[in-house]
Amino acid sequence: MNKVRRVTLSALLLGVTLLVGCAAPSRQVPADAAFWSGRMGLQIHSQPAQSLSAAFELQGSAEQGELLLLSPIGSTLAQLRWTPHSAELNQGGRQWSSSNLDELSTQLTGTALPVAALFDWLAGQATTPVGWQVDLSQLAQGRIQAERQSPTPAVQFKVVLER
Question: Burial level of 127, CB count in 10 A (0-12/13-18/19+)?
């Protein structure tokens, strides 16, 4: 993702998070699907620093799933889908495909997100991908904090689940 696009996305997500008090319409989720929703924040300590924040809906598993990033009024900012063999990113009417989920999460956020580990974290397992440290001490309150020091730039990732 080029720098201008990343800065534009950061500004859009920051602006969207400043809008408060808007209710998101409920989405239909299959009864047997693993599903989480809430807010996520990402700080990338690069030059210049980047900060992303959005509501999210996550469903599926590390092997096959979907991550939606949403505005406070419920409109889709980005959709990331993956299977064992491919991944797709839809954002602003544009679509990218790859066989590598990390590549598309980098396209979306500016850094590779530990999507596979996130499913373990949500299950209370402190899986630690290379360079990452996770704090699950507040999971019972619906909070996950993780940070990556290596490779640079350093990254802080926070998840707050809806109750």
Answer: middle
